[in-house]
């Protein structure tokens, strides 16, 4: 088993008798094996077992992963990122104790983590119950169809009526190019100012969110470097010069997109989220997408009401399982 870098091996690391313990970053061969394992699980379950945060971490030397092997091959893994972890078990090797052993190993290192069950599949519920965990939080995946009516030629008027000016990252980059601002422009120019404003608003709008609210500039930059990133789909809205909202759309495929992040300043008043959602839907429609999805906390009734009024319906849900009596927080994803 590979252990968390910087921490001496413990008995929890030796999940399989005779399995080698190797402190330090995951070896490149094993890293690829974990990614392949996650892909097999997703194909089998129809749900991705590893979230974007952990997939990004697996590309770096800082990846912290515990792996469980059979005959030398990785058949289960627990990825750690900060106080969170995610667990995935090979579909062909389930019901052999791998998932339970990894959950026990994670809890031995940090008993305060929570376990997310993507899709809340029966196997994940059974694993949670066997580990003495209870459901504490839900994350809904909502979806709505997109069609020609969403091209919305009146979207500019709707923004103006709300007193909003929308500036995209692409707009800011073009402004810098016209002003002769050299690249990279870290700490300089309109593009960096827009990204800094986005990050500040994100922290403010999601101050109580255990995952989204702790993003750093490094987290943001990692996503800006992803192949899917489109600077024309990250926008910041201002009203009378003050930042009041933002929206970021992630292309998922040729016909699908995701409202990746939608944020409104707590003091912005009503209408900002609705106007930005309308703008984003028009952008997606113009690119030919036929489906738009988003994630929302099950307890966020205000946001859910907005989305349901604009045509979204629940497609699936993730459920967070916690050790009994522990408060909800960001945590582990169960892929078993």
TrEMBL record:
What's in the keyword line of the UniProt record? Acyltransferase, Repeat, Transferase
CDD domains per UniProt: NAT_SF
Enzyme Commission designation: 2.3.1.189
> Which one GO biological process term can you cite for this protein?
mycothiol biosynthetic process
The answer, when asked if Repeat is one of the entry's keywords, is yes
| Entry keyword annotation includes Protein biosynthesis | no
The biased composition feature labelled Pro residues covers 1-11
Protein name as annotated: Mycothiol synthase
Instruction: Supply the source organism for this entry.
Output: Miniimonas arenae
């Amino acid at each position: 088993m590979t252990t968390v870098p910087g921490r001496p091996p413990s008995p929890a690391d030796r999940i399989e008798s005779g399995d080698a313990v190797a402190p330090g970053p995951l070896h490149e061969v094993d890293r690829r094996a974990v990614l392949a394992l996650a892909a097999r699980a997703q194909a089998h379950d129809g749900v991705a077992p590893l979230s974007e945060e952990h997939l990004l971490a697996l590309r770096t030397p800082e990846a912290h992963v515990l792996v469980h092997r059979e005959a030398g091959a990785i058949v289960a893994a627990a990825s750690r990122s900060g106080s969170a972890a995610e667990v995935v078990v090979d579909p062909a090797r389930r019901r052999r104790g791998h998932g339970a052993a990894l959950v026990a190993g994670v809890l031995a290192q940090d008993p305060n983590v929570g376990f997310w069950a993507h899709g809340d599949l029966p196997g994940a519920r059974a694993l949670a119950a066997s580990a003495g965990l209870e459901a504490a939080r839900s994350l809904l995946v909502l979806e709505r169809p997109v069609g020609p009516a969403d091209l919305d030629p009146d979207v500019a008027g709707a923004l103006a009526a709300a007193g909003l000016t929308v500036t995209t990252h692409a707009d800011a980059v073009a402004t810098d190019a016209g002003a002769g601002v050299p690249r990279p422009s870290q700490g300089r120019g309109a593009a960096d100012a827009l990204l800094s404003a986005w990050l500040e608003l994100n922290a403010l709008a999601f101050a109580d969110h255990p995952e989204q609210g702790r993003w750093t500039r490094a987290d943001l930059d990692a996503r800006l470097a992803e192949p899917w990133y489109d600077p024309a789909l990250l926008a910041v809205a201002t009203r009378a010069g003050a930042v009041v909202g933002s929206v970021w759309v992630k292309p998922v495929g040729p016909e699908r997109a995701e409202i990746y992040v939608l944020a409104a300043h707590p003091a912005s008043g009503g209408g900002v989220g609705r106007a930005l959602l309308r703008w984003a839907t028009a952008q997606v429609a113009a690119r030919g997408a036929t489906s738009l999805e988003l994630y929302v906390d099950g307890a966020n009734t205000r946001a859910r009401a907005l989305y349901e009024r604009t045509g979204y319906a629940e497609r699936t849900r993730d459920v967070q399982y916690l050790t009994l009596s522990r408060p909800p927080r960001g945590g582990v994803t169960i892929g078993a």
